[in-house]
Specification:
mainly alpha; about 80% helix; globular
């Protein structure tokens, strides 16, 4: 397998892991509608960094990290579930600033870190990468250079998804008003909170 094919397959893996609808996807859309494409792209960058971290673990087959994530999955899901519920609560009840008001902006660091941490609270991502890389015929790459190319492809594929998502949301930004934005915030809050409840249920199920 040549280097280009390796990068392309890694990109397919990164894209496939990022694309399913989840709390970070919803937050990325909400932030883009509220504060523009930059906020959405930075949130996507945080999620892509976390996906790349898990992809690196899977690509290098770091067994002790994988075993740790499996062993502590209950606690990671528990903390992540409560975190998602808290974020959903804040989004539901927080009144968004007017679209005409560009003064109130959260820091880019906050957008990045929150998206990064939310993605990290899902330890099954690394297991998904293990399965997907094996399906793409990439499970045997243990040497550093091929694995680094694979990881670069994963990051590229993830960022392609987040860029498309942020730009699409930004395209519709001028078509929404403050009332629509308020309802978007509430829908995002309910959705993120629901993901949190589901995460807690899965943690309880995993503990049995």
């Amino acid at each position: 397998m040549n280097d280009v094919e390796l990068i392309v397959r890694g990109a397919l893996a990164g894209f496939a892991i990022s694309a399913p609808v989840g709390p970070v996807n919803i937050l990325c859309i909400s932030r883009t509608l509220l504060r523009g494409r930059r906020a959405g792209l930075i949130s996507g960058l945080g999620a892509a960094a976390a996906d790349t971290f898990y992809g690196s673990i899977a690509g290098f087959s770091i067994s002790f990290v994988i075993n740790f994530l499996k062993r502590e999955e209950f606690w990671i899901r528990l903390v992540g579930g409560f975190l998602l519920i808290a974020i959903g609560f804040v989004y539901y009840f927080k009144k968004p600033p007017s679209l005409k008001d560009d003064q109130r902006k959260e820091s880019p660091q906050s957008d990045f870190i929150s998206a990064f941490m939310l993605t990290l609270t899902n330890p099954t991502v690394v297991l998904s990468f293990l399965a997907l890389l094996a399906a793409l015929g990439l499970g045997q790459h243990k040497n550093y250079l091929p694995t680094l190319l694979l990881i670069g492809g994963i990051f590229t594929g993830a960022m392609i998804w987040w860029t498309v998502l942020a730009l699409t949301a930004a395209y519709f930004r001028d078509r929404v008003d403050d009332r629509v934005l308020m309802w978007m915030n509430r829908i995002a809050g309910l959705a993120v909170g629901a993901f949190g409840v589901l995460t807690l249920i899965l943690s309880k199920w995993h503990a049995k």
